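Handoff note, outgoing to incoming analyst
You'll be picking up this chain. Sequence as last confirmed:
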Amino acid sequence: MNSKVNDIRIDIQKLKKLPTLSYTAEKILNLTSKELTHLDELVSIIERDPPIMSKVLGVANIVYLGVYKPITTIKDALLKIGFKTLRNIALGIAIFSLFKSSPEKEKTYARLFKHSIATGSIAQIIADKFLEETSDENFTAGVLHDIGLFALYYAFNNHFKKIEETVSEEITLIKAEEEIIGTNHAQVGKWLAEMWGLPEVVQEVILYHHDFPDKSLKYAKQVALVQLSNYIAEKLDYYPLGKKSETEFHKERVYKILNLPQPEELIFELKEMVKDIEDL
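Most recent structure output, in case you need it:
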């Protein structure tokens, strides 16, 4: 590992520039469905943080609109979408709240946020509607896949700006990152997820979402789903950067794992479903 990479890893591991998990995020992460006494506690934690509550309700309605009548309260969300799904949506939103931005960075933060919410929502919708299977971690893995980009934007903003300027039709995001900082946001995100004790499946998705999905021995299906969802989010103009750039999408490998309609058909189906992300 070269010294530049090592310096960035040390900064992340020691949290010199990055926040620790907030009380809200840590409490949500620790709640489990087996501990039924925590149902009311989850509602209480979310309701005590109005900005998080507002976004949780917004995301719940994007992902589940058409399945349920509009979800208007956290208790309503708990009853309609279940404890684990509500917990996972709230966890993702709570983690994003750590990266509060200054006014001059607000556009960048909003763009990263909307790309991440779009990816997580698309992953959840595809799993429910097209794969007809539910995983507790689909939304969380999708929404946190680019947490490494948030880390670079928040703690290493000069590097982030240089990476953004370098990306072009010929130079992918991963290539630009490796040229400038000697590593990439997938690896940075994995370091951060490990420190925070996020679920193993989320860590694997973060690490491999631009790579061959089957590099993850245990979670290839989840990686494939999020890689596809990331690709679709970008095709729907939810780009993480201020310019359009081609993402790594290993279509043949993804479709070997997932039995799904072609991306063009999915994009057509999903376009209307995720349009309300603009309002978050």
